[in-house]
């Protein structure tokens, strides 16, 4: 296991370095104007020496102890990014565990009801959840709550901004929808694979109860396959986080990251893109750390559930 964790850390460092190198690409460009001074085209040509100077310019204040710089309110970018990330973690962490627990439970239910009439509320709802964009579920839930509020059935709800507990709860639900269906499908497939294993047929022949087979043997062995998808769940959570925070005006890390990246699309003085490397680097660091932690959780879970892997890797 230690070897795998070491490789994971090396991969994370390499990926982060590559992202920073892409962030620090030189952005100077030549603007072509028409006879009346109107914009015609922008021409860009990569320069290795300019790229090196860009990297040096980025690292110099960090090595001098000045950090990544400050925003217009004189807040350090790194500190502000961490503060906003903590706000987003109020959504990500609960959604992560809800997705896993509810997804595994839904997958077990789908497996147990794969035959018969209850399949309609089992497998078919999972397939529906995977087929329909989660944005549809979000809009449907919001419209339902608004309708109930208009009818006076539910009052006092505030579904927007980051300062309301109900907004946090609803955003956690929004985040959990698609990962839950995804893990339900993964769990169902894992249990289906285990169901055809030789040890299951042998246990059935010996009269072992179906309850014990499912929850003690099949699910335990299938969890190793399920936890392999931890990284994918976190990636789904992070990608949906940008949509949900923007849609509900929940001003967390994804919201501000989007704001900084949006500013980078503007051309200032016809020279280069106005990109704030310090802010984007700070938010990128925290987002990639979350992905790293998901990978570590996956490796530890596999080692715990599959002891032979732990022993084989030292």
Polypeptide structure, described:
One of its GO terms (biological process) is transmembrane transport. It comes from Jeotgalibacillus malaysiensis. InterPro entries: MetI-like, MetI-like_sf. This protein is 71% helix and 4% strand. It is mainly alpha-helical and 314 residues long. Helix 3 (77-112) crosses helix 6 (165-195) and helix 3 (77-112) packs across helix 9 (230-247). The longest helix is centred in the N-terminal third of the chain and has 36 residues, at 77-112. The strands form 2 sheets. The chain has a two-stranded antiparallel ribbon with strand order 1-2.
Give me some keywords for this one.
314 residues; mainly alpha; 4% strand; two-stranded antiparallel sheet; MetI-like fold; 4 strands; single chain; 12 helices; two-stranded antiparallel ribbon
What topology emerges from the helices and strands here?
Elements: H1 2-23, E1 30-33, E2 39-43, H2 48-63, H3 77-112, H4 123-131, H5 134-150, H6 165-195, H7 198-205, H8 210-227, H9 230-247, H10 253-263, E3 267-268, E4 272-273, H11 277-305, H12 307-313
Helix pairs in contact: 1-11, 3-6, 3-9, 3-11, 4-6, 6-8, 6-9, 8-11, 9-11, 10-11, 11-12
Membrane topology: Multi-pass membrane protein
Main location: membrane
Family: Belongs to the binding-protein-dependent transport system permease family.
């Amino acid at each position: 296991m230690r070897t795998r964790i070491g490789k994971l850390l090396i991969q994370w460092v390499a990926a982060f370095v590559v992202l920073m190198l892409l962030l620090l690409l030189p952005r100077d460009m030549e603007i072509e104007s028409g006879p009346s001074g109107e914009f015609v085209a922008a021409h860009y040509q990569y320069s290795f020496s300019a790229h090196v100077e860009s990297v040096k310019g980025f690292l110099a204040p960090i090595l001098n102890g000045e950090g990544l710089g400050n925003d217009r309110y004189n807040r350090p970018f790194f500190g502000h990014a961490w503060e906003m990330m903590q706000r987003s973690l109020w959504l990500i962490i609960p959604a992560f565990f809800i997705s896993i627990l509810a997804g595994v439970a839904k997958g077990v239910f789908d497996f147990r009801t794969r035959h018969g009439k209850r399949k309609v509320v089992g497998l078919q709802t999972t397939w529906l959840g995977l087929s329909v964009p989660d944005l549809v579920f979000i809009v449907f839930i919001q419209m339902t709550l608004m309708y109930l509020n208009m009818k006076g059935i539910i009052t006092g709800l505030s579904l927007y901004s980051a300062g309301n507990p109900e907004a946090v709860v609803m955003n956690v639900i929004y985040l959990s929808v698609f990962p839950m269906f995804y893990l339900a499908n993964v769990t169902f497939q894992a249990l289906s694979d285990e169901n055809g294993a030789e040890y299951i047929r042998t246990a059935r022949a010996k009269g072992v109860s179906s309850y014990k087979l499912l929850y003690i043997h099949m699910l335990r062995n299938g969890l190793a396959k399920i936890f392999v998808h931890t990284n994918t769940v976190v990636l789904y959570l992070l990608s949906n986080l940008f949509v949900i925070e923007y849609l509900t005006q929940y001003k967390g890390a994804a919201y501000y990251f989007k704001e900084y990246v949006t500013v980078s699309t503007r051309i200032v003085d016809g020279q280069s893109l106005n990109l704030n490397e310090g802010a984007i680097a700070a938010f990128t660091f925290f987002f990639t750390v979350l992905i790293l932690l998901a990978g570590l959780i996956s490796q530890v879970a596999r080692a715990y559930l599959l002891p032979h892997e732990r022993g084989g890797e030292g």
